[in-house]
Amino acid sequence: MIIRKSEQEIERMARSGELVARTLALIGNAIEPGVTTAELDALAEEFIRSQGAEPTFKGYRGYPASICASPNSMVVHGIPGDYSLAEGDILSVDVGVTLNGFVGDGAFTFPVGEIDPEARRLLDTCRVALVAGVEQARSGNRLTDISHAVQQATEGPGFSIVRTLVGHGVGRAMHEDPQIPNYGEPGRGPELAAGMTLAIEPMINAGSPDVFVHDDEWSISTTDGSLSAHFEHTVAITTKGPRILTTAPGVDLAAISGLSAG
Ligand code: MF3
Ligand code: CO
Q1: Which terminal Cβ of the chain has fewer Cβ within 10 Å, N or C?
Q2: How far is Cα of residue 78 from the mean position of the Cα atoms in its chain?
Q3: Beta bridge pairs of residue 106
Q4: How far is the centre of ligand 1, averaged over its atoms, from the C-alpha of 68 (Å)?
């Protein structure tokens, strides 16, 4: 069952989303060679709690940290630790915040210093794929219109979609219906309607789409060792079209990270 939110509830979710964006900005500004992912996690947790909010991920099914930090060939759910960032790395950071009973969920893949042109193209493609998916989050469309748009934007430039991981509805719970695959024929699944709030999150690989779960039972990496990117927004479907909730006034993650505008 897809839970639709009232306008008031969407305003509350926008406050959660704003905190997600501000947390990602804080992390983006702290990223540099030599910083460990555990340090980024501590920074995020302290900031989120200072705002009267909770890091949604911490304790979720036993997850031990406040953010996910997944370097290079790691796709998602990397547990922060003593991994020290190096020039040329990419780092996917996923943040969940619960404020006033509602969850905001967002992710951004940051370059560490100068990265290879092919890595940059991967990040740019994933950002474009996310925007293409968000554009389809309109009442009257069907769910897989989002999926199809993400797939087209990813495979056109020659990258692959991770098929075993999906986006999701989000609200009072981090994971609500529906599941949102990042590939598929358009025009399938439930009809979209105003009040639905969706976490749209393409996860794309430079090589094969295949992934595996590490022994820690959380971290997921590409099987062939190729780079992977992950961008995510929480989006509300409104009568005026899609509204991105994981954004904040004055916060421009692309500018912070040195990626091209957009
Ligand atoms: N944003 C992720 C998701 O959509 C994060 C969940 S990771 C966990 O599933 F640590 F919270 F489990
Ligand atoms: Co999510």
Answers
A1: N
A2: 13
A3: 95
A4: 8
Distance, CA of 195 to CA of 13 (rounded, Å) = 11
Can you say how many angstroms the Cα of residue 8 is from the centroid of all Cα atoms in its chain?
A: 24
Q: What are phi and psi of 144, to 5 degrees?
A: -80, 0
User: Where is 40: in which H helix or E strand?
Assistant: helix 37-50
Domains of the chain in start order, with CATH, are 7-257 (3.90.230.10)
Q: What ligand 1 atom has the least distance to the C-alpha of 199?
A: 4
Give the tokens for residue 83.
């991994």
Mean pLDDT split into 10-residue runs, the chain, 262 residues:
98 98 98 98 98 98 98 98 98 98 98 97 98 98 98 98 98 98 98 98 98 98 99 98 98 92 55
Q: Which atom of ligand 1 is nearest to the CA of 232?
A: 1
**Per-residue DSSP letter, 4:** P
Nearest to 189 by CA among 160, 207, 166: 166
**Model-level pTM?**
0.98
* Mutational test site, ligand 1, from 67, 76, 230, max ligand atoms within 8 Å of CB: 76
Q: How far is the CA of 87 from the centre of ligand 2 (A)?
A: 27
